[in-house]
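Hello forum,

I keep getting stuck at the same step: I have a sequence, I want structure tokens, and every attempt I make locally crashes halfway through. Rather than fight my setup again tonight, could one of you with a working pipeline run this one for me? It's a single chain of 302 residues.
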Amino acid sequence: MPNPVAVLHRADMTMKLLLRGGSAIAALTLTALAASATGNASGVTTPTRSLDAQVELLRDHVETRLPPATTGPVPTVIMLHGCGGLRQVQQAYAEDVLAAGYGVIIVDSLSPRGINRFGAMSQVCTALRLWGQERAADIPAVIAMAHDNPAIDADRLALVGWSHGGWTVLEALDFAAEGRASPAIAPQPDAPLDGVRLAVTMYPYCGFPVRADGRAFPDHIPLRAILAERDMIAPHRDCERLFDRSNAAGTSVDFEVWDGLTHAFDEPNPPPDPRIEYNAGAAQRARARLVSWLDEAFADQG
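Reply #2:
Ran it on my machine without issues. Output:
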């Protein structure tokens, strides 16, 4: 995940204020300056598609799995990977979710955009491409696919995002609180998070250039988060500040900072990065926590 230079950190709050309704010219100017510093012009050059076109973009890049012996529509979890793309961690969580009786939709956000592993690590993970604001367009598209699948109970959906995927979930929630979806979708869908009953973010990235600031999340979608105390890639304090603002604004966020853990602590096959250490016990605990949150969110929705 991105760890931008100091000049961009200083621009963080200014950028958010401009994005939320200040001078359009100033916002574009600051975005261009930020892009110059990071190589990322995502805020200016984000491609725009209709919802149907977004669905077609992703259709061949989602994996839908249902629990064995399914007899009717099942509540389903939409899974959004980190900046490096699909990894073993999504499969590990999927197995536990399926065993609990829920379906999963695993979304590959990179392949349909022509981003390979090298491109992911060199561009997406460094914020040179595919910011969370743009990727948030994937969520209403996958929700639309879920509503078209009779095996899925599309009135009982959950979003789970790791790292960059967590950033993406936060942006989708922030847009939804404003009554809209990502600006990468036009025209806008009527209900971009239709059927979502729970959102979970695992060590999400919450620093610049994240647009969501915690002051506007939908109060009808519970937001849960697990943060890592030793996270040097997506520092937990950025998320704590964001979630504290949400709590102060009246929308409760249930977040926990787990001691002694690094970014991607639950990835069984981590990349060769000294900032990432797999912890099997904590990974199992996180998967169990997710299932308990799903049980709670879906219990009264049958």
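Confidence is low (pLDDT under 50) at residues 3-44. If your local run keeps crashing, start a new thread with the error log.
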